[in-house]
Amino acid sequence: MADELLVVRCQLGEREAFAELIRAWHPAIERYVGRMLTGPDDDVVQEVWLAVFKGLPRLRQPDRFAPWLFAIARRAVMNRLRDVYARPEPELLDDVPGADETEAVVDRETIGDALAALPAREREVLLLFYLEDLPLDACAQICAVPVGTIKSRLNRARKLLRRELARKGYEA
């Protein structure tokens, strides 16, 4: 009821009522924005209060102030997130000496050939575990074998891959 009365007083043009409304709700809005943006952002909080100031005269249900306020805050947060994700990410510079693209292509091709030379069961478990980044139990479900079998296949596959790469002259 107190918020509803403050909203009505604000709609009637009382400046002190708006200041009271801000004092009452500012910490909650600051907390919400900070958690949504993983850190405080005074600009977004200011945008929220500016939108509240502009929109308050049109609020038809003063008893619905809190949901209306948080809807405005959510919109401001989403706008900020949209802006952040729209910016291109900075290009990473490759400062590693000797790591050029042709070497990487040759390495991938050598590893791909070595993988192709492995038996299907061992190749499958390597692909699932390392390339698809699946946990052991998921690999076991996919292959329809116990987790212990996956572990032993993974161990055997590593040894076979190492041996095959050494046979091809690849030094890791």
Short note summarizing the structure:
With 172 residues, the protein is an all-alpha fold. Helix content is 73%, strand content 0%. Helix 3 packs across helix 4.
How would you characterize this protein structure?
It contains eight helices and no strands. It has helices spanning 2-11, 15-36, 42-55, 65-86, 101-117, 120-131, 136-143, 147-167. It starts with a helix and ends in a 5-residue tail after the last helix. Helix 3 crosses helix 4 and helix 6 (120-131) packs across helix 8 (147-167). With 172 residues, the protein is an all-alpha fold. It is elongated, with a radius of gyration of 30 Å.
Q: What's the oligomerization state?
A: single chain
Q: What does the overall shape look like?
A: elongated
Order of helices and strands: HHHHHHHH
Find the count of extended strands (DSSP E, 2+ residues): 0
Q: State the secondary-structure class.
A: mainly alpha
Summarize model confidence as the mean pLDDT: 83
Biggest sheet layout: none
Helix content: over 70%
Distance between the termini: 71 Å
Descriptive key words:
single chain; 172 residues; mainly alpha; 8 helices; 73% helix
Secondary-structure map:
Blueprint: H1 2-11, H2 15-36, H3 42-55, H4 65-86, H5 101-117, H6 120-131, H7 136-143, H8 147-167
Helix pairs in contact: 1-2, 2-3, 2-4, 3-4, 6-8, 7-8
